[in-house]
Fold this protein.
Amino acid sequence: MTDPDRTADRAETDRDDDVAAAMAELDRRAFLPPEQRARAGEDRPLPIGHGQTNSQPSTVAAMLRLLQVPIGARALDIGAGSGWTTALLARLVGPTGSVLGLELEPELAEQGARNLATWPVPWASLEVATRGALGRPVDGGYDRILVSATAQSLPEELVAQLTPEGRMVLPIRTTLWLVQRHGTELERSPQGSYLFVPLR
């Protein structure tokens, strides 16, 4: 007889291992400006230009573990910056999934797209976000949404882009939140205090 708690624990451990493997494979250094690469091993946010940062590795790992990204998922990465989180999501969803990274700053988006293109993840792309809009609606919605910038309140525009069983991780003010849809119901749980650049 299978123990459901043990099965759940094993699945969670597997996801943690997947995140660790993705972060080991996709070297943060390759997604940083040349002047910041010597600091890639530091567990802190690093500037990437245009007032944006490459997030602290421990924070990125925590967000990805909360997101519980399954193989084959369709994921949206908001505030994609230098492309690191988009590449990590691509590694987690695998070639049967898809990832769209969106970055508001055109020059940064171009740089992030170049960084992403150096890795064999053709099922992921990074594009310029539409100013004044959040996300990019698609038929069927996204299974997972990662937001790496601080909102002032829960963006209903993004909630509407989740699938009926989708998950979103995002900072609201100074708190990181896990948002889960269960059909028409919405479950929200705080996950600690973090600081991010503003969502614009």
Helices lie at 4-25, 57-67, 84-93, 106-117, 156-159. The mean pLDDT is 91. The CA atoms of residues 31 and 123 lie 18 Å apart.
